[in-house]
């Protein structure tokens, strides 16, 4: 079966950068068991109360940011949609009792295309866009991912795009030699121990159990963290987790890649 993946999308500049993280993204496709039929992808930048499943004949590229080099606004990622997989995802969610709707108008935001253009640069794998709801409990988010798990048996790659640490209040934009903040490393270490041991109940209590959770995942900014929970749930049938990459920018902005549900 296909694994499910969590990938951090960092800052939009990641789309045109060459560093250890983008190099790791560039290698991801070759590490999959086969070429995916389609990608079902949760983006932190598409929030909705009900679960929305997006499909279009060809997705427009949304440049949902400001103040960056013109080069970024000229990037296009014209991925095709997959209506059959989108409708199957809708049915799986309905069968699980999840309020869900089909969206046929929204393009791919930078949470989608910034990382996809590194993983599949030709935009030649169809995409099904998925919204996130940070107002749900961790267990509710996990169960949404679990409901989609059967898609992995059909060579569908389930991806969550966000950031395990994403808090603008703790970014060091000067990139000094001081490196990564200790508290960020401690949070990521706790997360690695929790995910690899598949302690879902501990993950559900990360705000009280994880060191420095209030810095890593601000209370009103958890939308970047929750894609991790969806894709972990999508691998509930195998319950294996492996962190493939971790690096940082600006002292605390974590670039992590997690693989779930494939034997290590």
From TrEMBL:
Pfam families noted in UniProt: LigB
Family under the similarity heading: Belongs to the DODA-type extradiol aromatic ring-opening dioxygenase family.
Residues in Extradiol ring-cleavage dioxygenase class III enzyme subunit B domain copies: 18-257
MF terms in GO: ferrous iron binding; oxidoreductase activity, acting on single donors with incorporation of molecular oxygen, incorporation of two atoms of oxygen; zinc ion binding
Protein name: Dioxygenase
Gene3D superfamilies to which the protein is assigned, alphabetical: LigB-like
Alphabetical keyword list: Dioxygenase, Metal-binding, Oxidoreductase, Zinc
InterPro entries in the cross-refs: Extradiol_dOase_DODA (IPR014436), Xdiol_dOase_suB (IPR004183)
Needed cofactors: Zn(2+)
